[in-house]
Each structure stands twice: as C-alpha cells, then as structure tokens.
Amino acid sequence: MVNHLKKKFDSVDDVALACVYFNYKDGSKTTPKDVIRNLLKQFWERTSTLSTEAKGLYALHQQRQTEPGFKELLSLRSNESGTISRFFIVIDALDEFDDTRNARATLLLELCQIPTVRVLITGRIDVQSTVLSTLQDNVVTFSIRASNNDIRQYLDGRIEKAGYLGEELKSDKELRTTVIERIVDKANGMYFDVSFSIRVKSDNLRFLVAALQLQLLEEQPNRHRILQALNQLPTGLGETYDAALSRIARRQPPETVELALKTLLWITFAREQLEAPALQQALAVKESSTDIVEIDLPDLQVILSACAGLVAIESESGKIRLVHETTQQYLQHYFHNRKKDGDAEIAKVCLRYFCFPAFCRAFENGTSLKDHLQKYKLSSYASRNCFIHICQGGLEAPFVAEILNTFENQGTRDSVFQIAEYVQKTPFYDGYGRLEINLLQLASMHGLVFLCRKVLEQCSPIQKL
Fold it and tell me: Distance (Å, rounded) from C-alpha 461 to C-alpha 458?
C-alpha cells in the first residue's frame, strides 16, 4: 500500500504521505506527541523549504533550549496540513502502541482534526473497538486473514532462496509439494499457550510457524535428514520454539551456542530494540575487555544463523529483533526457568563498557561526543538504560560495589551523564566540559536508594552537610 501511494503521488506537490510503524518493544515508550512530531518530520521531508510558522517555532525553542509542547505541535500540524489537498497516513500495528491514558484514542482523535487526512490503520482485532468508537461513521473495516494459499505462496518464495533445501525441492516437485502441504497442515488452527494458563489463537502466527518449520528443514544436511525432520515437525508454536532452542543447544562449536543464547537474552530483556552494531558490541564485551576491538565483533550473519530463525534484522532501520512478540514471551519463561537474569547480564556489560578509557573524561564539545557515539555504538543504550536494569531488576545491593568501582572517576560520571542527556535532548544539548557530578547526585538521579546510603555512610559529617 505504501509503495503504491508513493508511486502514484510521487510527483504531486500538494499530496503528502507519512507512515508510522509501531512495535511491541518500543510501543510503551511512544506517546501521541512523539507520533505527531514524527508525522511533521515526514511532512517536511517532502519539501526543500519550511513554513514561516515552523521556522519560528524552531527558533523559539532553540533559544530556550526546550522542545515544543504537544499543543504547539498540534497547532503547527493544522497549519502545515492546510497547504495540501490530501494527507495520507499509514499506521501499522496500532495494537502495539501502548494504550496508557487512552493514547490510541487520543492519537486518532487528533488525526481526525486534519481536514485533508486519509488514514489506513492495521492492527489485531482488539483495537477495532477503539477505532470504531473514536472514528464512528468515518471508518470502513476489512478483516484480513491468511488463507492456506497465502501460506503456500509464502513457502514457495522462501524455498527459492533456501540453499541446499531449495535445490533439493526444485529437482523433486513431489517432495516440494509434500513439504509445503505438511507445513501448511501444521500451521492450521495454531494455538500458543502464552502464559501457561491462557490460550490464544492468532491468524498471523501461521506465517511465523511456517517460517520456523521451514528453517528447521533448511538446517538439515542431506535428503535423508530432510525427510526425517519432515515426519517429525513439531505441532503448535510452543513445540516449534522448543525445537528451535533444542537445535541451538546442539550446535557446534560451544561458542556458537553461547553466542546464540547471549543474543537471545539481550534482545529479550533489552528495554528497546537495538541497532545491529550496538548489539554486536554488547556481545563482544567480556569481563577483561578494555575497549572495543573490531576483530572481536561477532559477524551479523553468524548471529542470525546461530539463533535458528528466532531473530531478524529490519532492513530499513537496521534494528535487530525477535521475530514475534510471542517469541519474547516464550524466551522470558525459558531464561527464567534456567535462572538466567537478563537485567543482571545487561547491567554487567554496561558497567564494564563504562570502564573503557573512552568514558574516563567529560566531553568538551559536540564534535567529540558525536565522534564517541560513532565508534561506541552501545553508548546511547547503556547510558540511558543501565540503571533502569539495575533498579527494575532489584540488583542495586549486589551491584553496589561494581557501581562504585565503575563511577569512582569524575570523568566517567560526567561523560555517561552527557551521553544520556545529549541523546535525549539533541539538538538543544550544550552541557559540555567538566560537570562535577558527584556519586550522591548520580545515585539520587537514578533512584538508587541503597547506593545513596552507602555514599552517605562513607562521607564525613561536614560532607553530609
């Protein structure tokens, strides 16, 4: 649909197109204000000039070093949309946009205020009531379901790119038909026990099961093993995930197993989707690491292959993610049952990362900070989320010595603070140079009560005053 609209209206000056793609991991952090701001950004990217109103608002907030408020953005949206005849907006996966404080209805109501707007919304059935009640008579709904033929076409396309399996199935049409029909049959009536007490049925899971089961066949080394695996295909998504983890556990060498499990742990428990280079650096950090060395970074294709089809990389954003939200639910239970603490693993890597010499002094200007972010790809995530993992994981007490050791240096405290502030406040951030953030300030700004007590215990009576 997006490509069709782009092609049809690409050369039409008074028609605009904007797309918003929600995902289950970042949806809880996104607000209606963020969406409106993103739509405005896309609106302006279609032209080489900004309106007088947009320039004025930018100049005002640049002077104040603040960001525009929600009402200011809505006012600007009204002005800008009045200059075009039609504004097409595509919203994908509205169900993955967190509905705290009726955020979905708030967003839809604001979009309806654009006189020239045409909105296409996709989502699961649970958002239909919100859409219908908000938009009332101004909405047409379509139920989209995957048929068996849709699954067959999908598998047919995958087989063409399936390496050894593809070559085998190209030369044996009967086997190709058998493989496709067997997987289609397994994907029918797909149920998955999400919480071990609730059973859900979702049509879009059929494509997921089909992909994972074809992945299982792709990994077989010869025709005999292909036939054997075909007769033992798992039933249901839970069993399919079990089979994928079992294959991972049997991989050789053991380093590949470690890489896969560490990758899955990071992606499962990270607070937001990571870009591939940031994840590669996270996976390369060891207890003895003192810097990021290029030759130590795991190859991206090796990472994807090791994870048995459970991980994918988004072509446009370059972010690496699990293939479905149920994959995260499954893996959370998987690691919990094996006493693997995702928050502890991530926090430990972040603290080790901060010990690198690159963090030992405050940044004097924007150029040095940008250069740092260019090389140290994990810096943005680590600076903003390390203490969240520590707090929400209940790790403050066991990690207090490591935190004190990491941040005993003034430069480290200042630089980590600068990175977090810069990432969140660009382009208005200007807090360069030595900031003199002390340990007590660091602990209090992140809500580390136990650490505050430890710092105060070590202070002299005069320092406490």
Answer: 10
Among 16-25, 200-209, 250-259, the range scoring the smallest mean pLDDT is 200-209
Residues near 104 by Cβ (< 8 Å), separated by ≥ 6? 94, 97, 127, 130, 134
CB 24 within 8 A of CB 96: yes
Place of tokens 């490591």: 402
Beta-carbon neighbour count of residue 362 at 10 Å?
A: 23
What predicted TM-score, i.e. pTM, was given to this entire model?
0.82
Residue 143 belongs to a domain: no
Which stretches of 192-253 are DSSP H helices? 205-218, 223-230, 236-249
Indicate whether 39 and 130 sit together in one domain.
Answer: yes
The tokens describing 356, both together, are: 């690198």
Amino acid identity at 270: A
pLDDT band at residue 368, thresholds of 50, 70 and 90?
A: very high
Summarised one tens digit per residue, pLDDT across range 17-31 is 999 998 877 756 789
> Which of 48-62, 178-192, 442-456 shows the lowest per-residue confidence on average (mean pLDDT)?
178-192
Q: Per the domain annotation, does 287 fall within a domain?
A: yes
Q: Are residues 456 and 443 in the same domain?
A: yes
Number of structural domains the chain divides into: 4
Burial 266-300 (b: 16+ CB within 10 A, else e): bbbbbbebbbbbbbbbbbbbeeebeebeeeebbee
Q: Tens digits of per-residue pLDDT, 126-144?
A: 788 888 888 877 788 888 7
Residue 401: CB atoms within 10 A of its CB come to 10
Between CA 290 and CA 283 the distance in angstroms is: 14
Rounded to an integer, the average pLDDT of 139-153 is 87
Domain with 266, as residue range(s), is: 254-340
CA separation for the pair 72, 290 (Å, rounded): 46
For residue 428, the model assigns a pLDDT of 61
Q: What is the DSSP string of 262-308?
A: HHHHHHHH-SSPEEHHHHHHHHH--TT--S--GGGSPPHHHHHHHTT
